[in-house]
Amino acid sequence: MKGIENKSYGPQLSQEEINLLSSQVTLLKSDTILYEEVYKLTEAQLEVMFKKLHELLTNANSPQTKKVILDISRTDKPDAKTRELLKFLWKPLLPYVEHIFIITGRNAIANVAARFVASSLGFSNFSIHRTREEAK
Fold this sequence. Notes:
Layout: H1 15-22, E1 25-29, E2 32-36, H2 43-57, E3 66-71, H3 80-90, E4 97-103, H4 108-120, E5 126-129, H5 132-135
Parallel strand pairs: 2-3, 3-4, 4-5
Antiparallel strand pairs: 1-2
């Protein structure tokens, strides 16, 4: 299987693409999930990745709330339509999230933009970091 490419995934996804996108959401520890966003946000891609995120967050065999490392370092700022979709997808999951560590990989201006988007999505307990190492 190839790695994530700098392209838009969807609207029709092959099983290989579904598997690839699902592999971007992984359980690091029993209480920590890594969500690695792709380059270009699409509805089809978000639906696949949020389905996996939902499964990991609501797993009855693990802690009730989890930390999510949300790595957005390789994606662009979402447009208004995509932010609305993200808000819709995140809303039912937020009760399962203890803290969201947002990894931007960018400069201070990008971090301010990420803070704005995170707040607009309803995140209340989050922090912004340039690297995963900073988030630990």
